[in-house]
Amino acid sequence: MARAVAPTIATGIAAGLVRNGAVLLAARGVAAVAGVVSVPVLYARLGERCYGVWALFTGLVTVAGLVDLGLGAAQIRAVATAAEGGEQRHARAVLAMGFVGGAGLAALAIALTLLGWPALARMFHLGELSGQARGAALLLVVGFVLDSLAMPWRAVLEGTQHYGTLGWVTGGTALLGTALVVLTALAGGGLVLLAASVALTSAARAGLLCAAARGRVPDLFPRWRDISRCDVTSVLAYGIRVQASNAGAVANNEMDRLVLGGFFDLPTLAGFDLGSRLVNLLRMLPSFALPVLFPAAAAMVTAGESQGLNRLYLATTRLLAGFAAAGAAALLVSADPLVRLWFGHPVPIAAQTIVVLAPGCAVSVVACAAGIVTRAEGFPGRETRCTVLAAVLNLALTIPLMRAFGPIGVPLATTVVVSLITIYFFAHFHRDSHRQLRPLIHTLCPPLLAGAAAVAITWFVAARLPDGPGRGAAALAVVFRGGLAVLLVAVGLKVIGLCRNISRAHSPGAATAVKARDHGANDSREQP
C-alpha cells in the first residue's frame, strides 16, 4: 500500500508543478518581454546619462529588496508547510513578522535616502541631474515600500501554490507598469514622472495581492498575537542564513552596476545595463518557474519523499542545463547584431557585456534547482557558505581585473567567480546531503559539450552568414547565428543521447539489468 501511495504523491506533485510553472511562465514571460522592449524607448528618450541614473537607482531598489533578513523565503516555507497539514498558528506568526520586517526595512530605506543623498550624488557623479534624481529615488523607494508591505500576501499565494492568481496579478501589473513607463517617456516625462509610474504600479500590485490572498486563503494572514519567542528564534535562525545568501547575490549580480557607476561615467553604466538586461533573459525561465519548485519541494520533504525529491532535482537540473546551454550559445554568437537590432546602432560595451556575462549566467542558472532543494530541506547554510565566499572573491577580483581590462573587467570578475563557486557549491551540496555526484555529472556533461561545440562551429561559419548595417541585416544575423547555435545544441544533445543508449545496450551488465528488472516486475505482479 505504501509503495502505491508514494508514486501517487510524487506524480501529483509533479503534475501540479508543471501546470503551475506553465501558468506563471506564460503570465510573467509576456511581462518580461514587454519590459525588454521598453528599454530602447527609455534609452532613446532619456539619453545615456539619464538612462544611466535610471539604471543605477532601479538597481539600488533591487538591492534593497534582497535585504529582507530572509523573511521572504521563511514566509513561503511556513505557508507551504501549513498547507500540507502543518501548524497554521506558526504560519500566521511568520507572516506577521514578515509584515513588521517589511515596514522596518521600508522606513530604513526612506531614512537612508533622505540623509545620505549628498553622499550618493557625489559617489555616482550625478552633477546637474542630482535634483530630479533625488525626487525619482524617493518615488522608487515609495514603490519599494508598497511591495515590501504586500510580501506576506504574496507569500500566501506562493506557498499555497495559487500560481494562476499570482500570475495574473504580477503579469498584469507588470504590463501596466511597462505601458505607463513607455507612455510617460514618449510624452517627454523625465525621471520623476517615470518613478511615479513605477510607484503607481506597485500600489496596484500590492492592493491586488492582498485582495487575492484574502479571497483564496482566508485562514492565512498576519496575526501579531500569534508571535512567540520560539517563532522569532526559528525564523531568524533560518532567515539570517538565507539573508547571507541574498547578500552574496547582491555582490555577484548587482555590485557590478554600482562599481561601474562609482568608478566610471554614466554612459558606461548605461551600456553595461543594456547588455546585462539581454543576458538576464537567460534567467527568465528559472526565475519564473523555480519559485514553483520551492513549495513543491517543501511538500515532498514534509511527505518524506526523498527519492521523488532527488528525481525532481535531477530532472529540473537537466532541463535548466539544456536551456542554459542553448540560450548562452545563442547570446554569445549573436551579441553584436542583437544589440544593433535592439537599438539600431552599435553599443560596444553592451555587446562585450553580453559575451562576458552569458557563460557565468548560464552556470548560475544550472545551480538554481540545487539551491531551491537545499532551502526546502531546511539547510540554507549550504548555499550561504558558497554565496558569501563568492561575494568575497568577487570583490577581491574586481579591482585587479578592472585595472587590467577596464570596465569590462568588472563583469569578467563576476563570471570567473560564479563559475568556480558553482562547481564548489555542487560538490558541497552533494557531499553534505549524502547525494552521489555521478548522476549530476552524467546530467551536466551533454549540455556542456553540446553548447561548447555549437559556439565553436557557429563562430567559425559566422563570416559566411548574412549580416550588414541596419536593423534588417542585424535581424537576419541574429536569426541565422542564434538559430544555428540552438539547432547545433539540440543536435548535439540528441547525438550524445543516442551514443549513450548504444553504449548502454552493448555494455556487459545490460542483459543482467534487464533480466533483474523483468524478474522484479514479475515478483511485484505475483504479490497479492
UniProtKB/TrEMBL annotation:
Organism: Gandjariella thermophila
Name of the protein in question: Uncharacterized protein
A Pfam family it matches: Polysacc_synt_3
Membrane topology recorded in Swiss-Prot or TrEMBL: Multi-pass membrane protein
Domain of life the protein comes from: Bacteria
A single Gene Ontology CC term: plasma membrane
Bilayer-crossing regions: 51-72, 93-115, 135-153, 165-186, 192-213, 319-343, 349-374, 386-402, 408-427, 439-462, 474-496
UniProt keyword terms in alphabetical order: Cell membrane, Membrane, Transmembrane, Transmembrane helix
Record-linked InterPro entries: Poly_Biosynth_Transport (IPR050833)
Location in the cell: Cell membrane
Classification via PANTHER family: PSMA PROTEIN, PST FAMILY PREDICTED COLANIC ACID TRANSPORTER
Biological classification of the source: Bacteria, Bacillati, Actinomycetota, Actinomycetes, Pseudonocardiales
